[in-house]
Structure formats: C-alpha cells, structure tokens
Amino acid sequence: MSVLHTFRQVWQGSRARSGHALNLPDRLTPPPGHGDFLLRPIREGDQSAWNAVRWRNRDWLAPWESGDPRHGPGMTYAQWMQELERARQEGTSAVFLMEFHQSIVGQISLGAIRYGSMCTAVAGYWVDQDWIGHGFAPLALAMVANWVFKDRSGPHLHRLEVAILPENQRSLRVVQKLGMEPEGLRRSYMYVNGQWRDHLTFAWISDQFDPDLLARL
C-alpha cells in the first residue's frame, strides 16, 4: 500500500470467508516509557474526530492515497464501519487508531489476511503531519506485529508484509528502523493517486520477529 488505506482498500480483495473471526483487543499498549500512546480499534463514535484529522491532512496524505481503478461509488463512514465489522467477523482485516493523550494521531490497518497454507497479512499506516517525527509509526507497526504473531488474542499469522512507494522516504525509514527484510520491487502493485504504481516490499516472518523490539524503540 503506499502505507495508506482508504475506506475501500481496507477490506477490498479480502472478502472470502475464512471462519477465523478476529478478537480485537480493547487496546494495545507499549512497554513503559512510551508515554500515553496506545492503539485501539476504530469505532462508530470516532467519526467526527477521524474526519477532522483526515481533512486536516488531506494534502499531506494525497500522494499516498490508494484508490479504486474502476472508480466505483465511495462509502460513508457508517458503511465503512459495517464493512469493517463484516471483515472482522470473516477475519480478513482490522483497523486500529493511534492515540496519544486521547487524541487521534494516526491509523494502522491490517488487510488481505489469509489463513490456511499462507497465514499472512498486509499492514498499512499513516500519521498526522503534526506528529511526524515522534516515532509513532514504527512503534505502532511493532505493536501490531507483536499482536499478530505473539499475543494470545491475535490471529497467530506466519508473515506480515508492508509495501511502500519507492519515493516515500519516511515510510522506508520506518521499516529500516524496525529491521524488516526487503523483498524487492513489485511492479504495478497498487492503484495509488490515480495510477498503477510499483512498490517496494518488506516483511517479517513470525519466528524472526523479536518482541523485545518494542522495549528498544
């Protein structure tokens, strides 16, 4: 993803029923020393605050915005919540808000979750421009990976992937800071900002992820 999801891309392409409903935690918290930062599932009641953050960041996020190449109808926030709940029941995607001092400072999403012989997912994220440089993106990605791979309530997947536009230097620094393994270029991987774009891909495998990374960040 260009590490940014629209309503549609959070769940599109992941709708085949898996039979593995996701048990989302009320919140995910980092080890002590990270202040009042947490991740929690997005809710219907977040509409006003979420819209305000996205509107304020519309120009900042536009270059990385994934879209629908068929230009289908958009979704309302309420429709998005319904689709997210359906996807949660099917075990195919989840969206967490990044919160700092009880304010939304970003979002991290899991999509394209597959079970069976693959046990894989793709992560995407964005951070409010006003909070860039505070380390929220790498911390959130490590927290989600820990939940995906290690947490008792998580989906216990084998692989977590991130795909990044080659010019997105900030996101490249995130995966480099975390030590995610580069896997090369995927041509025309995703429709972003009106065109099909190549992406650089990075991944963690479950037995290569070190939970102590959270304490070291």
From TrEMBL:
<dbReference type="InterPro" id="IPR016181">
    <property type="entry name" value="Acyl_CoA_acyltransferase"/>
</dbReference>
<keyword id="KW-0012">Acyltransferase</keyword>
<dbReference type="InterPro" id="IPR000182">
    <property type="entry name" value="GNAT_dom"/>
</dbReference>
<dbReference type="Pfam" id="PF13302">
    <property type="entry name" value="Acetyltransf_3"/>
</dbReference>
<keyword id="KW-0808">Transferase</keyword>
<protein>
    <submittedName>
        <fullName>GNAT family N-acetyltransferase</fullName>
    </submittedName>
</protein>
<comment type="similarity">
    <text>Belongs to the acetyltransferase family. RimJ subfamily.</text>
</comment>
<feature type="domain" description="N-acetyltransferase">
    <location>
        <begin position="37"/>
        <end position="198"/>
    </location>
</feature>
<dbReference type="InterPro" id="IPR051531">
    <property type="entry name" value="N-acetyltransferase"/>
</dbReference>
